[in-house]
Design goal:
alpha/beta; D-tyrosyl-trna(Tyr) Deacylase, Chain: A; 2 domains; 6-stranded mixed sheet; two-stranded antiparallel ribbon; 34% helix
Length: 208
């Protein structure tokens, strides 16, 4: 899951001529949902968005307060294009969650935001509609958030890192056993290859 969070003095969404929603000072969140997202990623993103410290405190110290601390508003807009993968210059969206599934997932996201904060301060666009966003960025301040990697992929990472070390250990293990085999092979006193030095050079001078 990816999100772009903008600190705003005001923001709003229109669909055609209709004003769907608007907020005063607060944050505008553009959210991109991927095929791999689960409830765990959703909950992580809710926590990050609501606790992101992008506002000043009472003394004017910046980066001290979150939107919840200040009791400001939040405007959320579903933005599947955040899951874009470029193929040359053409955007590809195969990693974005399909529309019907994403609609339910996004609805759950809004529900969790409202449960964690004040429901009346969470505003929304219109899922799947062609929208116009009117954002007055304050600063400007724009922060990108991304949920941690999917848990099913995590256990594989250590194994990939361990493979080079495992190969080294196997090489070390084989080394002594192979050399000991060579030492145990009986050699004739007349065999030129038994002498120390470059064995290849000696063998190349043998008579056919």
């Amino acid at each position: 899951m990816k999100a772009v969070v903008q600190r705003v003095t005001r923001a709003g969404v229109t669909v055609g001529e209709e004003q769907v929603s608007s907020i005063g000072r607060g944050i505008c969140v553009l959210l991109g949902i991927s095929l791999e997202d689960t409830q765990k990623e959703l909950e992580h993103m809710v926590r990050k968005i609501l606790n992101l410290r992008v506002f000043e405190d009472e003394s004017g110290k910046p980066w001290s307060k979150s939107v919840m601390d200040k009791e400001y508003e939040v405007l959320c807009v579903s933005q599947f294009t955040l899951q874009c993968i470029l193929k040359g210059n053409k955007p590809d969206y195969h990693m974005a969650m399909p529309s019907e599934q994403a609609k339910a997932f996004y609805g759950n996201f809004l529900e969790q935001l409202r449960k964690a904060y004040k429901p009346e301060l969470i505003k929304d666009g219109r899922f799947g509609a062609y929208m116009q966003l009117h954002i007055q960025n304050d600063g400007p301040v724009t922060i990108e958030l991304e949920s941690p990697a999917v848990t099913t992929a995590d256990p594989k990472q250590p194994s990939k890192l361990e493979k080079p070390q495992q190969r080294k250990e196997k090489t070390r293990a084989k080394g002594p056993s192979e050399s000991s085999k060579e030492r145990n092979v009986p050699r004739s006193k007349d065999d030129p290859s038994a002498s120390s030095g470059a064995e290849g050079d000696v063998s190349s001078e043998r008579e056919p």
